[in-house]
Amino acid sequence: MRKGDIVLTKFPFTDFSGNKLRPALVLISSREDITVAFITTNLKEVVSSDLLLKANPNNGLKKDSLLKMNKIATLDLELVVGKIGSLAETELTEVDKKLIEAFTISIERRNDLKKED
Questions:
Q1: In 4, 71, 80, 81, which residue has its Cα 20 to 30 A from 31's Cα atom?
Q2: Cα–Cα distance, 25 to 39 (Å, whole number)
Q3: CATH number of the domain that 51 lies in?
Q4: Would you state the pLDDT for residue 11?
Q5: pTM tops 0.85
Q6: In this structure, are residues 95 and 13 in contact, taking their beta carbons and an 8 Å threshold?
Q7: Residue 42 belongs to domain spanning
Q8: Which position has the higher pLDDT, 33 or 107?
């Protein structure tokens, strides 16, 4: 698995009371675990860092969905059921922009932190 793949995985509830099998976008992958962002078909609760994903054969989504960049988890690879699709390069560029927005990352901030060292 690599960044941009959409997988089915057991994604934990935010209160850790359980989990649900759902699609998620791979952000980082290693031998032991993956860091993923939650995907939902609930289009009602949109925040600025969300990204609308239109269902298509390439991404494997059955319905238009929201990629929730504010719901990220690192999971053991054993929780992944399998890959269902992947995003196009143009969509990955949008994902990167949304990550920057979600984590309030800026070049100016990085430069300020370097000056403090």
A1: 71
A2: 7
A3: 2.30.30.110
A4: 75
A5: no
A6: no
A7: 5-116
A8: 33
